[in-house]
Fold these 3 entries.
Entry 1:
Amino acid sequence: MLKVSRLTAMCAPVFAAILLALSSAGASPAQTVDRMVTHNPPGRAGGQIVVALRSDPKTLNPALAADVPSRDIIYCMNADLIHINRETQKTESALAKSWSVSRDGRTYTLHLRRGLRFSDGKPFNADDVTFTFQIYLDEKIHSSQRDLLIVGGKPISVQKIDDYTVQFQLAQPYAAAERLFDGLPILPKHLLENAYRNGTFSKAWSISMSPGEFAGLGPFRLKKYVPGQRLVLERNPYYWKVDGQGNQLPYLSEIVFLFVPSEDAQVIRFQAGDTDILSSFSAQNFAVLARDQATEGYRLLDVGPGLEYNFLFFNLNDLAANNLPQISHKQVWFQDVRFRQAVSSAIDRDGIVRLVYGGRAAPLWSQVTPGNRLWVDSALPHPARSLERARELLKNAGFSWKSDGTLVDSQSNPVEFSILTSSSNAERMKIATIVQDDLSQLGMNVHVVSLDFGAMVDRLLNSFDYEAAIMGLASGDTDPTAEMNVWASTGGTHLWHLNETKPATPWETEMDRLMNQQLITLNYETRKRLYDQVQQIVAQNLPVICLASPDILVGTKDRIGNFHPAILDPYALWNVEELYVH
Amino acid sequence: MCFCSSATRGFVWSDIVKHRHKLWGALLLLAGLHVVVLFAGFFAPYGSSTQDRNLPFAPPTGLHFVDASGKFRARPFVYGLKDDPQALGSFAVDSTQVYPVHFFVQGSSYKVGGVLPSRLHLFGVSAPGRIFILGSDAYGRDQFTRFLYGGQISLAAGLIAAALSVLLGVVIGGLAGFYGGWIDDLLMRGGELFLALPWLYLLFAVRAALPLHIAQWQVFLLLIVVIGLVGWARPARLIRGVVLSAKERNFVVAARAFGASDVYLLRRHVLPQTYGVVLTQMALLVPQYVLAEVTLTFLGLGVGEPMPSWGSLLASLQQYYVLSSYWWMFLPALLLIPVFLAYYMAADALQERLKTVPL
């Protein structure tokens, strides 16, 4: 990555020189449009596609959107400064045509494309960028992006150099800084400034507003919204990308989002031909759809393991203040690494892959999935399931077995605990049932408890009233910085032991050191070595026992061209501007 | 008049015979069913939670008498399964693997009546062969085995809850009918209140208020208590009606005139007249309450994995891929039909007997 940014840094003056030459040659700067040329084969203009979303969007305001449907729609309507190409997993220029990094790695200078217009026809320049970051960084707005923009404990500072140059200052070198800009849509100052000044920004761009009040730099703009039924986006005539033949993108005239509440209903609608693209569905439904794919004019693609990792973890929280004696007493087992290793060794990961995901998943021994090609430690050992090893570990940890096979600890207490899962996730419930059966073979009496997701999260994050749980996490990016909140001991998603004032174990101290070191290291190879060590610590000490990573499965009608699904969100629509209808 | 009377008598007699047949037929069917369920360990070929992770959603195993070479074999046999290369996750019959079915075989251990350990099973095939009469579920567990073990939970829940309901009905309906007046008003209005209770939501609320994980037997007890407690009002009303008319009968009035106490009257003269209603109500309520258990477990409020019940066997049908791909997952639902039918037949025959045979 550093190489890329250094290269662009060297190229930047050249671009600037060409631009200067163009403008000095008499071309009016207002007419010069720095279009971006894409590389996919040219498509056909016109037509519409229909895509199903689980629910209505809650808002179309990028600073406030937290739910998946809102974010999917916002993705189609907006653009960011630097973009992560979902296919290569690397950054590429977007609204910033080029950028350079200072030698100390703390100053980023971005050169914006000239002559671009928002979807309402108004011009775009550096004022929009500074305004946008003012919004994202404003504590009163509570934008979900704000956390990302705090580097080394301080917010990134933004400064306009001229109309088409913006400079970002970081408190410390930050390895993945350019990846930060992905997913930060640039907002139109001319439409939102009043709302911001009047303190009504939290109501701005709510879903009930008329289409004329929205504008973005993305390939599509809002046309119509029928609550509870559908939302229609139309082509943005001012969009700034062209294909290799100079045709302006996007090709599609319209995207229709239908609101279909459940996965099964979405599968049926796709099967019936009502929708053109389907993503985020189970391997079992994949098998159902696969039977008819030859005759029904659609095709299904298994993109391989995504970034989601599902894992089992034990409650290692400090429960002194929570008055949960039942759980504190069981923590003696959970805190013993040999107990966790025995559990890990007894779990049949291949069985999970086969039974839960119909073979469309990868077994995991650490948090980085094989889909994350740049960061996975491929040298990590993958020990096969072994009940003998598990028994050996338990024996060494002072456990023994009664005559009826029940496992008891050194005080003769039978080993019995419950595993919490979310009742809305059929796959994790199935994993829990398999784990329950596996551990019963070690003489452990395991109960599976399913709660609705909200109640479960409350127990995991607030009351700590649980013994073990099965969860899944998926970062939005392949880069390890996206995982800081999980692996740093102070992180908000450090699930097994939250609110640590100092690392509770030596290996957590080491993990903190490695994570913080990789954060400020700019060289990819060095960072990779550091993050490999983190993966080894996770595999060895098992704060979470990683189980499996499901494949990203998508379906599309045969008539859709340039369809290249990726493992990064949004899996199927990431190159929506290039999609076309045959 | 004589002609008329003999004709009536003839009709009644043949009716009694017919209903007696129906009753015996139904009772025999029910007895058979309950014996099989009670001794599930013997009749089922596998353990209730034995998983074969290589055979999830395996179709029902076909019994064969003629092998691939066309030769007839006296002992039935089954073929092994192999992964279907055409479709990931489905199976094809492998006619090279032949497993004869044996009777009275040793297999996984279980306890007869929860006490006596045994390994004897009615039938089975030797490993690695598998016999799945009703196919296997998502974990490769035998559906037939789970149906039999599931019956233990579901039928027990239905029977105990129905007994609880009817017992409450007899006590409350008996008191209301016998004493009348404000006691009657109070009890019957209370009953109406119970009829109006949204019991499903009640159960959701009760479950939410309980601790995170409660033992399976506690869940089971909770189911029974909630189903049984909520349903007493209907039998109570019926029994009150019978008691109301019974206490006005001449022999009851006469007994009272001779100085019989209330307890004596209720015990000797009034309540015995309700026994027909009680039996009919039992036969009607058991399938209703089994269905209630099935519904609650289907919704995730019943006993949890890996313990099977009829409701949890049907719960997988909530998923589209199961509905559309694995027809054998419907078989437990089909098997419930004769179970319910037998109970309703018994109730029907009892009802008819009540009408035709004066108590």
Entry 2:
Amino acid sequence: MFVGVTLSLLAINGCAPSATEGGFSNPAPGARIYAIEDAVKFNRRDQIPQIVECLCSDDDLLRYMAIGALQRMTGQDLGYQFDDSEPLRFAAYQRWRQWTIDQHLAPPEQAYASTIYPPARQRPSW
Amino acid sequence: MNTPLIIKSSTINGSTVLAPQSDIDMSRAPTMRDAIKSALAAKPLRLVIDLSVVNYVDSSGIATLVEALKWTREEKVGLALAGLSPRVKTLMEITKLSTMFTTRATVEEACKV
Amino acid sequence: MEREPEISIRIFSDPHLLATVRGAVDGLSKCIGFQDKSRALLTLAIDEALTNVIRHGYGDQTHGMIWVHMWRSADPRGLRIIIEDLGRTTDPAKIKGRELDDVRPGGLGVHIIKETMNEAAWEPRPSGGMRLTLAKWLNAEELAASYPASSSPEQSNP
């Protein structure tokens, strides 16, 4: 699968506007995309779990950037395609969560607090 | 040897139309990027990128289009691509971006989206 | 001894010159029988490979040399390309790691090269720089379309 975005242009050339600050703690897709760009640029592997959480987003651009970043940082996609149906995406997301546990990037109980999406799965706006 | 990217700009019904006049590759993507940023600074209703004269877009060009998508969503401005050549359509399909962009055959149609 | 390439191009590491190589790749691949999607993929992959040389091999300097040699392959039928440069030498095992400097999420860069080409191998050149050897074969549909109806593949091999 080809996910073709040059994050270098996105990360190096622009400063994040205030509306998109806050990194992964900001539920807005724009903020998370900037956070993903920074994570890839500085190889912040400790933020891979947060990037994995973005695979569940309702926002297609955020999902696209997230899987692209994971491919870049890990060399694999575990079968996740950002434009697959939700059940397929969720199954691949589960594989990614297990991978973060196996790689000791996430706690084994899989209970790392998801600040990203509360159970109601409300859709954050840009 | 410098062959700068010429970008024609126009306004149709509140939409800003940017029409790059050659391929968007590594050498020309920064110019396209700056043009998009400038266009959005004027807060148009919609941004239309007319690709009817563009026969090739490399990864830098694709990244620029994705960046346009990101910025227009942040600014709540519509974005549409118009006049994609068969080769550019193929490139968009290869990179799976065809599902994320609104595309139309002509600028006029894109300005109505 | 390997025969001479059908096309050899030497360019400076100037991004403005990439269109010239794209044109040659597209033209030769069309002659060989690649169809539009394959040609688009080939062009993108070669473009990415050259972009990597410019960015990582020469650090965006435009005075470096890049050689692109292209051969028609008869068996299997397709296209062979060798890209050579005199830029920074990289451990081929670290080619994937080098991508992190160029923060594109997968698909483009090295990924598209590996996904598009049937063969892709990086190696340091004995005299300095890097050599990238690529090969792409016609798929079944392109093979079938490239042979005249009255002849067999064996009779039609160039």
Entry 3:
Amino acid sequence: MAVVDRPQSALPAAADTPRPFWRSLLTLRGGAGVRRTARVPWIPIVIISVIVVMAVFAPLLAPHSPIDQTLRDKMLPPAWMDGGKAKYLLGTDHFGRDILSRLIHGARVSLLVALLALTAGGGVGLLIGIVSGYVGGKVDAVLMRLVDAAFTFPAILFALLLAVTMGQGLGTLVIAISLLLWASFARVIRGEVLALRQRDFVALAKVRGCSTLRIMLTHILPNVLNTFMVLVTLNIGVVIIAEASLSFLGAGIPPPTPTWGLMISEGRGRIAEAWWVALIPGIAITLLVLSVNLFGDWLRDRLDPRLRQL
Amino acid sequence: MKRYIARRLMQGAILLVMVAMIVFFLGRLTGNPVDLMLPEDATAEDREAMIKTLGLDGSVLDQFVIFVTNAVQGDLGRSIRMKQPAVEAFFDRLPNTLIIIPWALLLGMVAGIPLGVMAALNRGGLLDRFAGTVAVLGVAMPSFWLGVLLIFVFSVELGWLPSSRMGGPDHYVLPVITLGTFLVAGFMRITRSAMLEVMESEFVKLARIKGLAETTVIWKHCLRNALIPVLTLWGVFVGNLITGAIVTETVFAWPGIGRLTYEAVIYRDFPLLQAVIILKSILILTINLGVDILYAYVDPRIRLA
């Protein structure tokens, strides 16, 4: 992928988004005065890296099995509280399962679903966006009606329906979340393609006798990849929250596989006796989503500032 | 205007047919629809009767015709668990959801719009950054977790507010906050960017040149015009609230249609789920249509486009 650095002067001045005040705390260099260049969001990058490493090496890193029950040690508080045991750093749930180990394995599910759903949903959106924008005419009209329809209709209802009819599982979950994503990808990519279509190099390719398919693949596609990458990053948080919500509602990956949404769902009934079971996974979700969103904002400003209105 | 309404009605109808087809085919494609529609302890006679009434021995097309005919007459099947017509179950619960949605909208507007205005006036200042933080956090926190957190703080630890079910006014506080928080962020962002845009416009400059008081300029000239894009998002927000109510009502055991959807999922009550999905689609489509027509009425550019 060709990453083209746009000159900073090309940044539109008016359309900015509010900057959270602690963002300057989270970034290492500079104060309020030197905000011209977008600074690399190091802390979000570190958080994301830690969670990715956790997910990839989950079996090696987790101190206990995420599934095996030790009823003798049930509902132990985190190690720093009274009654906590050092071997359960973040405490245990009502089956005596180690929260930290479940959290580490849960990261796996969140990131795997995000990867697959963004590939599938984003890919379909990219394809539809390019075809719709470049071919135009009736094809465009029909595809955009479909996009409008997808926007009106809440995808979460389809996701629940799929879980009941097709059964819970990774496949169902990925299909359901892809349905949530494709329309917004298609709409933005189409907009980009409409602009690209007018450019001289496309006209030149046509004159040279390139087929429509060839133009779409070799001339349009590489030029929307930056936008695509930005969209992917900005949507990771959406997918993670959607996965957690579906798991919470009993329509995600079925138990006993630990997922963050399921952990919150299992813990919420015992919040009075053991708050850590439900609250700790939520902190993990919020931290991860916050980090990918801040990283996505930065990436967007670097690669494609025009997307700021989104 | 009439043509515009007719066109939008047509689009809504097509969308509804699509929803009905998807619900229908998902119910038939996967194995045996009889298993989906009947409780596990159903007798052979029950099964026979079900096959008869749904025309399951006929072609798929015939089955779809029967499905649509029944649906149009308000028959979307019987809930397995509640042992009553699914449509009836839906309408029994609907008022409980409709009663919290306006409060959540109100919270979103009352907190979000002034915050957006102040952020725009203070652009780059401390308040703007505070608003930015609210917006970023509001998006990053899953609302069901926020609900659990609120229960922990205000019900368990402080004991100020009830944690579940319907009741007096104090029962509304936590569900409304949980449901409305993402709206605060939404209203804030849109108000802020709309205000920034309006504040640059010629008529605002003119108002200033005329020597009007700054408060009049801001609240009367700017905000009024900035509110137009804010109001167009009503339809989208209400749609979001209806789906957002699924997790919120689940967390607070609130007996509305959101909780009903959750129950249909965890008890695998397919007839109930299909009714809920179709009726919710109708609800969301109607609201969107209403908002669009209202907006077209206010702004002629839309109905002519």
